[in-house]
Amino acid sequence: MPESCPDGPAKGGGAITGERARSIYNGAVFEVKQQIPDEPVPQRIASGSETILLVDDANSLRAVTRELLEGCGYSVLEAENGERALQIADQCEAEISLLMTDLGLPKMSGVALAKFLLEKRPAIRVLYVSGDADEIMHSIVPDPGTAFLQKPFTQETLAQKVRDLLDSTQDTSPLREGFLGRGSDPAA
Q1: Other Cβ atoms closer than 10 A to 149
Q2: Element (H, E) at 173
Q3: Can you tell me whether residue 81 is helix, strand or coil?
Q4: Helix axes 155-167, 59-71, angle to 10 degrees
Q5: If residue 172 lies in a helix (H) or strand (E), which one and from where to where?
Q6: Is the pTM of the predicted complex or chain greater than 0.70?
Q7: DSSP, residue by residue, 119-153
Q8: What is the distance between the terminal CA atoms of the chain, rounded to a whole angstrom?
Q9: By the 8 A CB rule, do 50 and 76 touch?
Q10: Which among 82, 54, 117, 91 is positioned nearest to 187, based on CA atoms?
C-alpha cells in the first residue's frame, strides 16, 4: 500500500468503522484500513511545579484533588479548614503560588480565608471551588473576574484551570481591592 497520496501523506483523525473503503486513482486500487484504538489517545495535561495550598473540609475530596494536583507536578499543602490553612501559610517559608479553596468551609468561608491570605501574601492567586449550587447562586464569590471551578471536575479541567490562573498576567489588584475593602466577616 502506498504511503502517500497525491495531496500529501494520509492524515489520521478519520474513522473506518469495520468496513473497507476503496479508492481508485490512475487505475490503482487502494484499500484503506485504520485501526480504531480501544482507548482514547491521552491528551497532554497541563502541569507545573508551583506550591498550592488546598483547602477543603471534605477529606476524601481533598485527598483526590491533592493526588490530581501532585500528578500534574505541583507541591500541595493541604488543610481541612481556614484556620488550619492560615497556620500552614504562616509556617511555610516557601512561596505559595495558589490558594485553592472550597467556598463553604466551617468557621471561616473560603472568601474570608482568601482575604486574610492576600493581606499576608499579596502575590497569591486564588481559585474558588464549590459543588453547592446555593453558594454559587448567592454570589459568595466576590467579583465577576474571580477564578472559579465547579465541582465535580476532571483532572484535565483542574490542571488547565490551575495552569491558566498561574500563568495569568492580568493585573488582579482591582479585584483584590474590591473584596479586601468589603470588611468580610471571618466567620462568614
Answers
A1: 18
A2: helix 173-180
A3: coil
A4: 70
A5: none
A6: no
A7: HH-TT-EEEEEE--HHHHHTT-S-STTSEEEESS-
A8: 69
A9: no
A10: 82
**Does residue 99 sit in helix, strand or coil?**
strand
- Name the packing angle between helices 110-120 and 82-91 (round to 10°): 20
Chain segment 62-85, per-residue pLDDT in tens = 999 999 999 999 999 999 999 999
**Are 109 and 142 spatial neighbours (Cβ–Cβ below 8 Å)?**
no
* Three-state DSSP state, 64: helix
Angstrom distance (rounded) from CA 17 to CA 122: 55
Strands 147-150 and 125-130: parallel
Q: Report the distance separating Cα 14 and Cα 138, nearest Å.
A: 46
Q: Length of the chain in residues, anyone?
A: 188
Extract the C-alpha cell encoding 30: 487502494
Report pLDDT digits (tens) over 4-54.
Answer: 334 434 444 444 344 444 444 445 555 555 555 566 655 678 899 999 999
Domains of the chain from N-terminus onward:
51-180 (3.40.50.2300)
Strands (E) located in the chain? 4-5, 8-9, 21-25, 28-32, 51-55, 75-79, 98-102, 125-130, 147-150
SS3 53: strand
